[in-house]
Design goal:
The protein contains 16 helices and 20 strands. The protein is α+β, with helices and mostly antiparallel strands. Flavin-adenine dinucleotide binds next to helix 1, helix 2, strand 7 and helix 16.
């Protein structure tokens, strides 16, 4: 895949894309379709490594929900991403995959997957098409910023090379899973240029809480199925945490805390609360299909000679892990008090102390702030430089929203770069 790089390549309507994830590849495709010579550089020996990893557990390309609901998944960045996602939405992404010979289907949750659930065939077909379109790939080239002449600096083996470009698209990814290439080392390079950045933080991540040795040994790795949860807000004394709805799902107990889809969905709020208050409390409903009144009524029916565990299991249908969690988190007095126990089953507070490290997260929040980008889509601090993908300051839950925004912003950055090239003609 690597092609020899010359020293100081001259520029003539030439675009350089740095980063060969979905955002960078989409930018390269969009520009090369318009006849622009594209050279794509990546620090790793091959492109799309995180994309391939995303395909391992079933490649969730996008989500099928209506776009007005889809947009809400980007929280406070929704307005900033609106134009990109309106121009390349969930259906456009499915059509694009179909164009590469990869059919997709909508799963029961509304998530969209390739029919074979894999990323590799899609990436293979895509790279083939990109090469046919004339995109040149330069692997093992780490971008180091710019030299005094404004050329891009790359290190390749022991050599440093300079590359001139009319437009530069940076699609360097976020800060998680550094071994796949996106290590966030571009942050200081852009900070030096005066680009406004938000710190990279874990998103869609696990959280830490110390379990007792018994609980950890017996239950780490086990899934907590059919629960609901919300982040307990620190309301003034006496006020209820009522306005936030509980979200149903499942998660996994880990040796150091919790992780999994339900936790990821709440991770931004949990993380932000830990950042501001030092800890956060996840409130769990262990029996989301039973009302609080029903749970209290069942508990009041009396357990006779049965042990509490066996009573909770047979009368309420709580499984071993849920019962163990009650024993782990409640005092003896709370377990013995029917009202307190009923309340805990429906609203069990699980304190969390820290996020797991950024490198383990599915994605990262933070990066290049939208305020650092002008109305033409260019960095205000550096002319003819555009950014795309996860390195921009947005976050979203899992469900295909991450990849969709990466593809869409890759396309948007390329179209902005094209305008820039055309206006310079
Ligand atoms: C385990 C896991 C599962 C996931 N599953 C899904 C999923 O099912 N659905 C979904 O929507 N999202 C999923 N994601 C998230 C998704 O994969 C990422 O959001 C997406 O890959 C980001 O795309 P990107 O192009 O912005 O960056 P990346 O894919 O991270 O690519 C960035 C590229 O830039 C290169 N690079 C970085 N710095 C330099 C440098 N200085 N010089 C040269 N090159 C550099 C890197 O080598 C890399 O190739 C998953 C992520 C993980 C970790």
């Amino acid at each position: 895949m690597t092609q020899p790089s010359s020293f100081s390549v001259p520029a003539s309507r030439r675009a350089v894309v740095v980063g060969g994830g979905p955002a960078g590849l989409m930018a390269a495709e969009t520009l090369s379709q318009q006849g622009i010579q594209v050279d794509l550089y990546d620090a790793m020996p091959s492109v799309g490594r995180k994309f391939l990893l995303a395909g391992k557990g079933g490649m969730n390309l996008t989500h099928s929900e209506p776009m007005d609901r889809f947009m809400t998944r980007y929280g406070k960045a929704a307005d900033n991403l609106h134009a990109a996602l309106a121009a390349f939405d969930n259906q456009a992404l499915r059509d694009w995959a179909q164009g590469l010979g990869v059919a997709t289907f909508i799963g029961s949750s509304g998530r969209v997957f390739p029919t074979d659930m894999k990323a590799a065939p899609l990436l293979r077909a895509w790279l083939h098409r990109l090469r046919e379109q004339g995109v040149r790939f330069h692997m093992r080239h780490r971008w180091l910023g710019w030299d005094a002449q404004g050329h891009c600096r790359f290190v390749h083996g022991d050599a440093e090379i300079q590359v001139a470009a009319d437009v530069l698209i940076l699609a360097l990814g976020g800060g998680s899973w550094a071994r796949l290439g996106s290590d966030g080392s571009w942050m200081p390079l852009l900070a030096q240029q005066g680009v406004a950045l938000s710190p990279l933080l874990p998103s869609n991540c696990g959280f830490e809480r110390p379990w007792t040795p018994f609980f950890q040994e017996k239950f780490a790795g086990q899934p907590l199925l059919t629960v609901a949860a919300r982040v307990q807000r620190s309301e003034p004394e006496g006020e209820q945490n009522s306005e936030q709805p509980m979200r149903q799902g499942q998660f996994v107990i880990t040796a150091s805390g919790v992780e999994g889809s339900l936790i990821y969905a709440l991770s931004a709020a949990l993380r932000d609360q830990i950042l501001t208050q030092g800890s956060a409390v996840l409130e769990l409903d262990l029996l989301p299909d039973k009302s609080a009144e029903r749970v209290l009524h069942e508990l009041q029916s009396g357990r006779g000679a049965r042990s509490l565990s066996s009573f909770l299991q047979t009368r309420l249908g709580l499984d071993k892990l849920k019962i163990a969690l009650l024993y782990e988190l409640l005092s003896k007095a709370q377990l013995a008090d029917t009202n307190a126990l009923a309340q805990a089953i429906k609203q069990l507070p699980l304190p969390l102390l820290a996020t797991r490290p950024l490198d383990e997260a599915i994605s990262s929040a933070g990066g290049v702030r939208f305020s650092a980008i002008d109305e033409c889509g260019m960095l205000t601090a550096r002319a003819a430089v555009f950014c795309a993908g996860e390195m921009l300051d947005w976050e979203a839950p899992t469900g295909g929203y991450l990849l969709t925004a990466c593809f869409a912003t890759g396309k948007q950055a390329a179209l902005a770069a094209l305008d820039c090239l055309n206006s310079a003609k």
